[in-house]
Structure formats: C-alpha cells, structure tokens
C-alpha cells in the first residue's frame, strides 16, 4: 500500500536525520572540548613563560648595564672539583673543559671587546713560581685578569708574585695562605683596588671539607675599557 510505503519512508528519513543530528552534536562537543583543551594549554604555556625567570649571561642574578661584561666564577672545591670562570656567557675555564689545574688558574680577557685572550694555570704547590711571574709581567695594559685557586694556590708564591697580583687590583693576595680559597677579577693598568675579590682562609675549625674551606663564588659586571 502506498500509505504504508510513505510511512516507512518518513520513518527512515526521520531516523537518518536524528542519527545525523546526534552525530553532529557529538562531533561538535568533542571538537569544542579539543579546542578548549588547546586554548587552555596555550594559556598555561603562556603563563609559564611569563613567570619563568629570565636567564642572564653566565647565569648571574641580574643583567649587566651597557658597556659592561658579565662574569661569574668559583674557586675549586678541595682537590676534587676544579674552578670555573665564565665571561659573557663563555665558559673560559672549568673541569669539564679540562683546562684547570692545581694552584692559581688565570683567564685573560680583552678589556675593550670582552674576547678571551688566554687561559693558564700555575702549580703553586709543587711547581715553580718563575713562569707565573713572567706570565704576570707579560700581561698587556687594558687586559681583564680573572684568577681562582684550586687545592693550594699559595705555597710557592713569593713577594714578587704577590706584588704583581696586587698591582692588578688585589687586596687579599698579601694574606693568601696554604689551601685558602680565593677568586679575583682585576685588570692590568687598574688605578684603584678591585671590588671583585673573595677570600676564605683555611681553618680546621671552620673548613667545610677536610683540610679545605668551602668554595667561594663571585659574580658581577666588569666595566668595558674606554679609550
């Protein structure tokens, strides 16, 4: 009968439309949920980026002003971990670079450009102070000089070597003793005493490590040499 056939057709069309509607609703809901998840994740990522503290050169605590070079350094830890010297985000000396050694570790930097010039270490326990003295005398005016001890940096130091280091701006070098920890940043031709120096005495009552004091660390901004 035509009426029965028409009724079946209506039912089929109704079921099709209902199925299509349900599917479309589910799809839209899922799509909305996915979009919501994406937007929420983007908002969280943006918030994380905004709250993450900025990183400054060499990992120092604040940015240096213009015409200054960022630096950070640490003395050695006992006779186990070597010192580390970083200038303008460039690690000049460290145990990882395998260019540090027992005694006094020295990095030279161009005072105008901040470019590294040389790195050396001088054994002040079992070595000879003469090469160290010659090295100190050869440093050119306008050179930034960074020094850090490792193990022992004082036993072989004599008055001449101490005087040459004092002329670079150091005040603690005259008192540097056996197994003291010391870091220093000065310059050849400096007219005043350097503000960048840390020194901890070797004292069996206060030493952090057996026979050695704790590590000394220092950071700052070195003024660029002006003509």
Automatic annotation (TrEMBL):
GO terms for molecular function: carbohydrate binding. The keyword Membrane applies. The keyword Transmembrane helix applies. It is found in: Secreted. It comes from the Eukaryota. The chain crosses the membrane at residues 6-23. Belongs to the FAM3 family. This is FAM3C protein. It comes from Steatornis caripensis (Oilbird). The gene is Fam3c.
């Amino acid at each position: 009968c035509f009426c029965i056939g028409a009724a079946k057709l209506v039912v089929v069309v109704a079921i099709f439309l209902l199925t299509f509607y349900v599917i479309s609703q589910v799809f839209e809901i899922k799509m909305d949920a996915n979009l919501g998840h994406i937007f929420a994740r983007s908002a969280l990522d943006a918030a994380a980026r905004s709250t993450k503290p900025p990183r400054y050169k060499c990992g120092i605590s604040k940015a240096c002003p213009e015409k200054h070079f960022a630096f950070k350094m640490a003395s050695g830890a006992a006779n186990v971990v070597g010192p580390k010297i970083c200038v303008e985000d460039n690690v000049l000396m460290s145990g990882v670079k395998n260019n540090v050694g027992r005694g006094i570790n020295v990095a030279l930097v161009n005072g105008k450009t901040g470019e590294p010039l040389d790195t050396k270490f001088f054994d002040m326990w079992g070595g000879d102070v003469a090469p160290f003295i010659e090295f100190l005398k050869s440093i050119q005016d306008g050179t930034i000089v960074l020094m850090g001890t490792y193990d022992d940096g004082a036993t072989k130091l004599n008055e001449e070597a101490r005087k040459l280091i004092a002329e670079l701006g150091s005040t603690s070098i005259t008192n540097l003793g056996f197994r003291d920890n010391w870091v220093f940043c000065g310059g050849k031709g400096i007219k005043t005493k350097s503000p960048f120096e840390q020194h901890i005495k070797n004292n069996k009552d206060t030493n952090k490590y057996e026979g050695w004091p704790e590590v000394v660390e220092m950071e700052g901004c070195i003024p660029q040499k002006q003509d």
